[in-house]
Amino acid sequence: MHFDHIGIATPDAGGLAALFETLFDAPVAHEETFDGMTVVFLELEDGYFELLEPHESGAISKFLDKRGGGIHHVALETDDIEGALQTARETGVELIDEEPRPGAWGHDVAFLHPKSTGGVLVEFVSH
């Protein structure tokens, strides 16, 4: 596994993308509307910032209402997402997703519950 991206909840993905593009020399690599939100991936040398702007009620809008903008999750890329989930199960980690599901950019994803991972929402992603 290796680092893939950090998901950042924001009420203004376009504005934050413009700031990060200038500040970090992180150009937009991909943008789409997915699951009721705008998702913008900014390319870094060793991964991405994933900006998440909700347009309807859901996990990201609830996150923003409760905590405001900021880091939502850390994503690790794996070639074997089912195996990664099995390892998490065997380790006693609570899964949010029992099976991989479609994610942004056409990737398969699965999340681990933050109460089992030191307060960090962890996403497995398979390209």
From TrEMBL:
Keywords: Metal-binding. One of its GO terms (molecular function) is methylmalonyl-CoA epimerase activity. It comes from the Archaea. Signal peptide: none annotated. One of its GO terms (biological process) is L-methylmalonyl-CoA metabolic process. SUPFAM superfamilies: Glyoxalase/Bleomycin resistance protein/Dihydroxybiphenyl dioxygenase (SSF54593). Residues 2-127 form the VOC domain. CDD domains: MMCE (cd07249). Belongs to the methylmalonyl-CoA epimerase family. This is Methylmalonyl-CoA epimerase. It comes from Haloferax mucosum ATCC BAA-1512.
